[in-house]
Amino acid sequence: MQIALLKNFKLIGTDTANQILITRFVFLSLLTIWITGFLLPLVSTIDDPLTNFLIAKIYSTVCHQDSTKYISIDNNSTLVCARCSGIYFGALIAAIASIIIFHPLTSKKLLLISIIPLLIDVLLVSLGIYSYLKIISFITGMVFGSIIYLFILTEIEKLILEQISDSLNE
Amino acid sequence: MNKKYLSALVCGFGAAVLTTIPGIESVACCLLVPVAAGFSIGLYKKSHPDILKIQTGTGVLLGLLTGVFAALFASAFEVILTFITKTNDLIVAMPQTEKLIRDMNLGQAAEESLKVLRQMANEIQSKGFSLLYSVMITLANLITYTIFGMLGGVLGTAIINRRSNQ
Description:
The complex is a heterodimer.
Chain A: H1 2-12, H2 14-43, H3 49-60, E1 70-73, E2 76-81, H4 82-100, H5 108-126, H6 134-169
Antiparallel strand pairs in A: 1-2
Chain B: H1 3-19, H2 25-47, H3 56-85, H4 89-92, H5 94-103, H6 108-127, H7 131-165
Helix pairs in contact in B: 1-2, 1-3, 2-3, 2-7, 3-7, 5-6
């Protein structure tokens, strides 16, 4: 299936390549905005209390926001925990890499493998074998974040290629 | 109602109901909403057997609508539950939220933020309702649920179209 799609991709040429590149840039931009949001306390100060509350509340729907698990620099903390930060930074690295390297195809198998370190970390911390370490959570999150991003991107690009291929066949 | 929106309404409502279960709320956005968006596309395809493939635009729209409905219903449920119990996550997490606001190192602005938060907490504890809190929670839910809804919509379209090809 993938080989057939890539064959189509080569046949279709620059228009498809541009469409895929635009998709990747859009995702990179959205991801950058999202990451800037939870890094706001580290990079700037907003005086409006309601805006601060709203920003914190937005990220509360994606993270438990346990203050002991935040990444802190000079008394300022991110709005999500180290693991969530790792996931989003992993996705950001993958997003940048996907613009430089053009065929970041990934598989479900790789996705399942990437979640194993994260689950082991969660399990070992929950069992009390070692205490929560921000660096381990960040790294395991980053591995998972980069692979899941590439997986989502692959699925979306397959969809674009399939639809272009269908419109050409019609 | 247009059949297109019915599947999004049903799945959005379902996702919102699940968000009221304690513990699930924190994964509502990342998991429940994208899955609900996927289900919404599945329902849409079942109700339109003549459609062989779902267009990406339709998938995104259904995901967006699922996110919007989920956000509105989830916010409504939270407002109702808060009104009945006169407590909610804001009251429970007040000490932690105060720490978070202080961590933002805003000086005078932090005090202003805390004043607003305490006012909201007082209103909730006394009347069971705070307009400001309700607006804030709806806005926050709308932003995150629609983003993840659209993502789920795109992924759902890709998966469902592939299944139809097989």
